Amino acid sequence: MTVHLPSGLPRYLLRRLGQAVFVIWAAFTVTSLLLYLLPSDPVQIMIGPQVRPTPGQLARLRHEYGLDQPVVVQYLTHLGRALQGDLGRSIQSGVPVVTELTRALPNTLALTGCSLGLGTLLGGAVAWSAAYTSSPRLRATLLAVPSLFNSVPTFWLGLVLMQLFSFTLRAFPTSGGTGFAALVLPAVTLAVPSAAFIGQILGAELIKAVREPYADTARAKGASRSRVLWGHALRNAMMPTLTVLGLLVGWQLSGSVVVETVFGWDGIGRLTEEAVRTQDIPIVQGLVLLAAVCLALINLTVDLVYPLVDPRVLVRGPAGRPGERAPARVLDGASSAATMASAGDR
């Protein structure tokens, strides 16, 4: 059987891929320019404040690291090396930047994955309960409570959890541990605000969806409330939720700086704090580039999932903006999906 891809899909994918590449290049370029404009001397930072080198020694070190070249030459040299996977060496440890990043990245990915999964489950449960209940007072409470957790600072929540479960109950290690036990409290700290955000957005979208005409049609044909929510409302509520999930991953990567520092979790966040504190410029530049790559991949993944959830994205874009004209079979598929949703179970 031959699979026919919509003719608008390749152009959509190429445009999104081009945007991702541009974001990565722009982040590298802006970071290089900002680091060049810093008043501190990278060579002086490398040798430390205790050493008083002669002007000749400083000139030799600057030449060795290419810091005596024009900024354009430095930028092109660093860009060429970055394309080959060479981001330089840490000023403090002398270890290649790529080695430092690959050492810390798995721990941060584990923390982000666990916290996002837990936050999605908790937020989804709150949203589902708010949309399923027939009590207006309970629904209003379920939608209002998450806003309280959105305003809680992560460092304060982390300290409270550490005081309660580590020092008082001694159920989890305080800081600096490894393994699943040391991962629980940092993951919960990041998951609580994420769950609140998901619960608010998904709950509001589900409630909006169950009031649409196609939901009334499904109920008139005998579909239960849970069937209407699961079979009809959820798909229509997924588009804003996917956008929120993409934003939450970026928020968790930035929030890991505080959480990993509080709990002593050896990940990208803690490495960022140490690099900024010690002014380790190659590490900082590598971290910014890694963050740009991660965010670009996240946005690209969300953009690729959009057409799977709603093929009409190829026509009007994920935010409802007019886009390129899709072929007839895409429009027919989108119309069929909308017709099936509005008609209920056949």
UniProtKB/TrEMBL annotation:
<feature type="transmembrane region" description="Helical">
    <location>
        <begin position="142"/>
        <end position="165"/>
    </location>
</feature>
<keyword id="KW-0812">Transmembrane</keyword>
<keyword id="KW-0813">Transport</keyword>
<keyword id="KW-0472">Membrane</keyword>
<dbReference type="InterPro" id="IPR035906">
    <property type="entry name" value="MetI-like_sf"/>
</dbReference>
<dbReference type="InterPro" id="IPR045621">
    <property type="entry name" value="BPD_transp_1_N"/>
</dbReference>
<dbReference type="GO" id="GO:0055085">
    <property type="term" value="P:transmembrane transport"/>
</dbReference>
<feature type="transmembrane region" description="Helical">
    <location>
        <begin position="242"/>
        <end position="263"/>
    </location>
</feature>
<keyword id="KW-1133">Transmembrane helix</keyword>
<keyword id="KW-1003">Cell membrane</keyword>
<feature type="transmembrane region" description="Helical">
    <location>
        <begin position="20"/>
        <end position="38"/>
    </location>
</feature>
<feature type="domain" description="ABC transmembrane type-1">
    <location>
        <begin position="105"/>
        <end position="306"/>
    </location>
</feature>
<feature type="transmembrane region" description="Helical">
    <location>
        <begin position="109"/>
        <end position="130"/>
    </location>
</feature>
<feature type="transmembrane region" description="Helical">
    <location>
        <begin position="177"/>
        <end position="198"/>
    </location>
</feature>
<dbReference type="Pfam" id="PF00528">
    <property type="entry name" value="BPD_transp_1"/>
</dbReference>
<protein>
    <recommendedName>
        <fullName>ABC transmembrane type-1 domain-containing protein</fullName>
    </recommendedName>
</protein>
<comment type="similarity">
    <text>Belongs to the binding-protein-dependent transport system permease family.</text>
</comment>
<dbReference type="InterPro" id="IPR000515">
    <property type="entry name" value="MetI-like"/>
</dbReference>
<dbReference type="GO" id="GO:0005886">
    <property type="term" value="C:plasma membrane"/>
</dbReference>
<feature type="transmembrane region" description="Helical">
    <location>
        <begin position="283"/>
        <end position="306"/>
    </location>
</feature>
<dbReference type="Pfam" id="PF19300">
    <property type="entry name" value="BPD_transp_1_N"/>
</dbReference>
